Amino acid sequence: MFQELKIPKLIRWIFSTGIIFLVLMTIFRLCVFFFFNRQGNHFSDIVPALLLGVRYDLKMICILLLLILLAGCFSFSNPFRTESGRKICLFIVSLAVFLLIFFYAVDFAHYSYLSQRLNASVLNYLSDAGISMNMVWQTYPVIWITLLLIAGTWFIRWLIVSAYKRIKRSGSLTSKKYTIISYVITFLLLALAIFGRIGQFPLRWSDAFALGSDYRANLALNPFQSFFSSLKFRHATYDIAKVEKAYPTLAPYFGLPASDSAALNFEKNPVQKTNRQASTPNVVVVICESFSAYKSSMWGNPLNTTPFFNDMTKKGIFFDHCFTPTYGTARGVWAVITGMPDVEIATTTSSRNPAAVNQHSIADDFTGYDKFYFLGGSASWANIRGLLINNIRGLHLYEQENYDAPKIDVWGISDKNLFLEANKVLKQQSKPFFAVIQTADNHRPYSIPDEDLKEFHKITVPQDSLKQFGFESNDEMNAFRYTDFGYRKFIEAASKEKYFDHTIFLFIGDHGIPGNAGNMFPNAWTEQRLSAEHVPMLVYSPALVSPKRISEYCSQVDVLPTLAGLCNMPYRNTSFGRDLLDSTYNHEKAFSFIYDPDLGYIGLVKGDFFYRRQLKTGKEEMVSVINNNPFVDNATNETEKNKMKSLADGIYETSKYLLFHNKKNHD
After folding, report:
1. What is the Cα–Cα distance from 501 to 545, expressed in whole angstroms?
2. Which of 95, 317, 503, 621 is 20 to 30 A from residue 627's alpha carbon, by CA?
3. Do 604 and 595 touch, CB atoms closer than 8 A?
4. In whole angstroms, what is the distance from residue 412 CA to residue 201 CA?
């Protein structure tokens, strides 16, 4: 049939080889199900995982097939034109077969031991190669595994070589015209399979965790996907000695029992407050893109970019000394959802780490609530989907394709339409709900839909005024103003619905923007980049909370404990957040931890000072955050500096530890 369709021999062999590999990998996946099904799943339960697994397998297989296709584009390396080409391509295929069977053999042993697919952390055993090899020799039938590896490689290679010989004997070479057409079509098909989907983002490991359980996610993945996805994180680890040393330092700040220092118990179970809400109010968390404090109206910026939000702060509980633990949207979402700073290296984030996808979130402790997450684009960005779906039971995730509103740019639909689409869903709910809305418009390319320009009017400010008050361009400034327009349209729409008076809204920036804060703040905001982490945080619920402005240091990690406290919701607190409205808290202990992955420092804002230390050089700085006076190096201040150093080090080391020890209680 292929010959009648004038398909070149190379293309026929490529597809034949792909089918052999796909059948083999499907058999291996079924082996994982039949031999490691410890949860008692029925076959019907894992069909979605098997189908997703085929896409992961095709992704890996088509990388190999693409190499063969590229080799076939040259006469000297085309296996159907020259002997050297035959040898080159059969060597590539034979090596691929060997690696496939080897990876699966190691993967099965790894899964049997740890109930996890093979990942790059296995390379850490090479540091103690002698001990590791002895353990493997004493635990597994190494000789039998080696024989099966050799026999399996020979058999699969024989199937592929047989297909090659059969195709080589079949008819003459195809014309140049059909060859070019076939090559182009094949290239596009292989590229699509490698990308994994039709859309903006490729198929990623985190998509497996949208299946709802760790087991189904592991079943969908293959050892190549899990290994290479985790390769960059294999050195992401912690120093247990440093964590144990830090525990007594952290204990009084987080209400930890000092007696649990050896056990490293970071779990707190706060007592319900009788003076909080007696019923179960709804919760809406708005994570605001690039909501930098010094650019907004709440601190007196003369450009008055956020007048509506400024008015809201006078009707709610406004925290004006809130700092994000670090810079970047993915890190901000991580901190809000998990209650931990994201202290991964600059080139990546914790949300992208396959070993960190299992995290406990207080959002999951809102029992009896329907849970929603709305964003205008795709949750494939930064692998956020895996963090959300895998750790928040029953989460309803709304993305670009779930809305009627049109896409306006790379980030999906506009923030205004995102708010209105979310409102359409929330107003239909009959049960209490916990919802997160993540905005994106206040971000390059600073798109403002034409449909809003009749109501939202752009303004033009002279360049010197823009620079003076924190903006690089009129486009950036108007995008910042447009976010305020979106907040107004959301609150106006929500206030007309029944749920509004029984809902607590919390707005918080995902991060700030480094820049010139001018005379609005002390020099440290500009010179030490505190402007990159300083953001507004507002609890807004006119019917449920009394207005107040609080100037105590706080952070994104405090969002969920504070909301759980407001709702009088029992919860497990296994990380760093605290209930900011807990009257029993010693407010003199308030601080904000800061990690700058780009400049490589950790720091702490506490009391009158900002302390920071370079991780590589150890260089330290201590500056005032209340005025521009130089730091006075006296005994009192030196004592405070040492305390801040120990606390910053403790948070940093413990954050690396909790990345792997903050697991949820459900599968």
Report:
1. 11
2. 317
3. no
4. 12
| CA-closest candidate to residue 577, choices 595, 593, 560, 602 | 560
Strand partners, 398: 374
Lookup: tokens for 171:
């008819």
List, for residues 63-117, the tens digit of each pLDDT value: 999 999 999 898 899 999 999 999 999 999 999 999 999 999 888 887 776 667 8
**For 529, phi and psi rounded to 5 degrees?**
65, 25
**Is 652 within 8 Å of 602 (Cβ atoms)?**
yes
Angle, alpha carbons 384-387-392 (nearest 5°):
125
Q: Which amino acid is at 236?
A: A
162: left (phi over 0), alpha (psi -120 to 50) or beta: alpha
Contact indicator for 336, 654 with CB cutoff of 8 Å: no
Query: Can you give the pTM of this predicted structure?
Result: 0.83
| The two three-digit tokens of residue 460, written as one number | 């033009």
**Residues 349, 354, 356, 361: is their CA dihedral positive or negative?**
positive
Q: How far apart are CA 235 and CA 138, in angstroms?
A: 27
**CA 25 – CA 53 distance, rounded (Å):** 9
Helices (H) and strands (E) in the chain, counts: 18, 13
Q: What share of the chain is helix, strand, coil (3-state, %, to 5)?
A: 50, 10, 40
Amino acid at 586: N
CA distance 464 to 571: 50
- Beta carbons within 10 angstroms of residue 157's beta carbon: 18
361 with 338: CB under 8 angstroms?
yes
| Amino acid in position 574 | T
Structure tokens at 281: 């109010």
